[in-house]
Amino acid sequence: MTDVVLRVAGISKRFGGLQALSEVGLTIARGQVYGLIGPNGAGKTTFFNVITGLYTPDTGSFELAGKPYTPSAVHEVARAGIARTFQNIRLFADMTALENVMVGRHVRTHSGLLGAIFRSKTFKAEEAAIASRAQELLDYVGIGRFAEYKARTLSYGDQRRLEIARALATDPQLIALDEPAAGMNSTEKVVLRELIDRIRKDGRTILLIEHDVKLVMGLCDRVTVLDYGKQIAEGSPYDVQRNEKVIEAYLGHSHKPTGEKAGAAAVGEKQ
């Protein structure tokens, strides 16, 4: 099995007169937490949406686990092995937490439409297995006791964790998290960080878009920085925080810090 989960190269995307992405690429190794950061409007979400099949790129190549990969549709992306969460929570509000996770798990079912209609023995056994796995995942993310609660009744932080459980239900090779800490208080962020760290330690590979630079730098193995749709830095969190182009992108020329300690503090202050 290849040590590279996702490799993309030369990704460009234009919307009318706006060049949203220009020749962007990255390589994510198995078991990494890989961060994608940049100022507002840098192209992070566009890049994320290209990878996960919401947008079709103008140019670029994709490999998933060493094989050519075409992110042509969201459901095909999920089947290929990439699961995602959204910046704005997208749960089935009037379904229970358990049912939400079961929906995610159905991408790996085999019974088909006829089995569902006629409630075959195979279908019933598979549904029981799906419900069991969904409960395991709710326990895993720390909200197992809320299995029968409707999604809309959960706290904001618990809804975020429910989205992650639903993504994990697809058995992804890569889980892509779009600003999972957005709107969270400091206590919820600590819980989220612990969860992401646990997912990584259990062998999952994670792509993380996040405005909270301190969270990214504390979790990620590698980081790519975008600015105006261009890749201006890539490397370890230590190196990225001290990159002059990154500091300039976040603080601008007039606030450019100097000295040996100009890096993490400078980039972190903007956030």
Could you describe the 3D structure shown?
The structure is a single chain. About 5% of the residues have low confidence. The strands form 2 sheets. A 6-stranded mixed beta sheet has the order 6-7-8-3-9-10, with helices on both faces. Strands 2-1-4-5 form a 4-stranded antiparallel beta sheet, with helices on one face. It is of the alpha/beta class. It is built from 11 helices and 10 strands. Helix 3 packs across helix 5 and helix 3 runs parallel beside helix 6.
Class by SSE composition: alpha/beta
Could you estimate the helical fraction of the residues in percent?
A: 25-40%
Query: In whole angstroms, how far apart are the ends?
Result: 38 Å
Shape: globular
The number of helical elements comes to 11
Average predicted local confidence, pLDDT: 85
What's the alpha carbon Rg, rounded to whole Å?
Answer: 20 Å
How many DSSP E strands? 10
Domain ABC transporter: 6-253
InterPro entries: AAA+_ATPase, ABC_AA/LPS_Transport, ABC_transporter-like_ATP-bd, ABC_transporter-like_CS, BCA_ABC_TP_C, P-loop_NTPase
Pfam family, one: ABC_tran
GO molecular function: ATP binding; ATP hydrolysis activity; L-isoleucine transmembrane transporter activity; L-phenylalanine transmembrane transporter activity; L-valine transmembrane transporter activity
What order do the helices and strands come in, and which of them pair?
Layout: E1 4-15, E2 18-29, E3 33-37, H1 44-51, E4 59-64, E5 67-68, H2 74-80, E6 82-84, H3 97-105, H4 112-118, H5 121-141, H6 156-168, E7 174-178, H7 186-201, E8 206-209, H8 213-219, E9 222-227, E10 230-235, H9 237-241, H10 244-251, H11 264-270
Parallel strand pairs: 3-8, 3-9, 6-7, 7-8
Antiparallel strand pairs: 1-2, 1-4, 4-5, 9-10
